[in-house]
Amino acid sequence: MAGEVRIDSFLWAVRIFKSRSLASDACKKGRVTINSQSVKPSRLVVAGDVIGVRKAPVTYSFRVLQTARNRMGAKLVPDYILNITPREELEVLELQRISGFIDRAKGEGRPTKKDRRSLDEWQGMNDNFFIDNEDFFSDDFDLDSE
To answer: Rounded to whole angstroms, how far apart are CA atoms 32 and 62?
Structure first.
């Protein structure tokens, strides 16, 4: 446990970002706020701060319970931060997750290999589809003469 920790280090330690450099980049791009103010990666975090992290399409909110410098196991994260993301934000995430299945009817989209083979068979496309050059050109037609 530490008193003050850099925001990029803290976001990495509590597993919000996979690496400290990703957390730092998010801060530089204005996707991270502390108490509703955009912050630089070097900003220090203390217990009681509210951190906002925008990961499209949702802005997550976390209350800092205690700070940490080192990365921890997922089971320990609830001891350090409390997820206070509004329910409306989480509903947007859930809606986006299931919308891909609602909008697409069965049978639409890219066909599988089996579907393609069945379609080829139905259309009569097989190994004899291509015409032999000998059958196409007659003997009295000479390609080289002109």
So the answer is: 11
Q: Who contacts 64 (Cβ-Cβ below 8 Å, separation ≥6)?
A: 10, 45, 46, 47, 48, 49, 50, 51, 80, 81
Mind listing the domains of the chain with CATH numbers? 5-100 (3.10.290.10)
The set of residues, in sequence order, having a beta carbon less than 8 Å from that of 19 and lying 6+ positions away, is 12
- The alpha carbon torsion through 56, 61, 90, 12 (nearest 10 deg) reads 60
**How many other C-beta atoms can be found within 10 angstroms of the C-beta atom of residue 67?**
22
Which phi and psi angles does 69 have, rounded to 5°?
Answer: -95, -30
What's the distance, CA 32 to chain centroid?
18
Structure token pair of residue 102:
């609602």
Residue found under tokens 């001891």: 79
Q: Does residue 67 contact residue 10 with C-beta atoms inside 8 Å?
A: yes
**Per-residue pLDDT, 107:** 62
The pLDDT tens digits for 12-58 are 999 999 999 999 999 999 999 999 999 999 999 999 999 999 998 88
Give the mean model confidence (pLDDT) for residues 59-72. Answer: 94
